[in-house]
Structure formats: structure tokens, C-alpha cells
Amino acid sequence: MVAGSFSEEVAVAIPADRLWKVVFTNTKSDLLTKACVGFIDAVDIDGDGGPGSVTTMKANPAVPDIKVLKTRVLAKDDAARVVKTEVIEGGKVSAQLKSETAVMKVEAAGAGACVVKVTVDYERDGGLLSPEDQAKVAQGYLGLMKKVEAYLLANPNEFA
């Protein structure tokens, strides 16, 4: 068993407080299905969004390598805008892993912008993930943030 870790970040042209609110605290929101049309068909959250809550995202049948992504919140700090989750069920790369946890942090980056940082820790039989597989995993997290950014910029009055 090998333990690995990697970090990535992405700039987002949405204020940190707004992004955190709509993505990480609004458990009844349909934002992800709106922002990710053709990618995510349904999102179900069992719990209040805090520790122990389980989120199930059902992918569109046209999406390769993933049908369902299920995560559990391990820790959440709304004041610091940090959430730690573990993958319970995932896609092709996640299937190679014994465990996968992610810490996502949303940091303010000037007026009307933020940076989303993700650190993924994993355990895997057979060695570390390749750089290509690390990029796929990171894109899974940060790509959602970019889709949310595009949706919120195109719909400035929604979730304001």
C-alpha cells in the first residue's frame, strides 16, 4: 500500500463568500445540475451538509468513466471556508484507490474573485498515481468549480 498526496488550485472570478455559500452550504440548491447540464443529472444530499452528510451525484449517461460519485463530509469550517470529504464511490481513477480524501479551501483573491485549492490524499496498491491520473482527479474537483463560475457569471442574479 502506497500513500500519496497532491494539490492543485484554480482562480475563480466569483467572490469567495458567494462561491462557498452556493456550493458548500446550500444543501437544497439545484446549482450543480444547472451549472453542469449534460454532466451531472442529479444531486442528493443526505444530511445538513455538515460532518457525516453524504452527497450522491449521478452523472449523465454520456459521461465516460463515471456513473455515480458519492462523498461523505468528514469536517467543515464555514468561517475558514474549508471542507474535508472522503470518496465512498467514484469513477475510473477513484476505483484504483483504497481511500481518497480531499480538502477544499476557498480563499479570497481580491475584489470579486477567489482561489479554490484542493489537496487530495490517497492510498493505493501498486504505486503512486501517474501525473495524468492525478490531473484527472484534480479536474474532477476543480472542473466543477469552473462550471459553477461560468454559470454564476452568466446568471448574476441567481444565488446572489
UniProtKB/TrEMBL annotation:
It comes from the Eukaryota. One of its GO terms (molecular function) is protein phosphatase inhibitor activity. One of its GO terms (biological process) is defense response. InterPro entries: Bet_v_I/MLP, Bet_v_I_allergen, Plant_def-hormone_signal, START-like_dom_sf. It is found in: Nucleus. Residues 1-155 form the Bet v I/Major latex protein domain. GO terms for cellular component: cytoplasm; nucleus. CDD domains: Bet_v1-like (cd07816). Pfam families: Bet_v_1. Belongs to the BetVI family. This is Bet v I/Major latex protein domain-containing protein. It comes from Eragrostis curvula (weeping love grass).
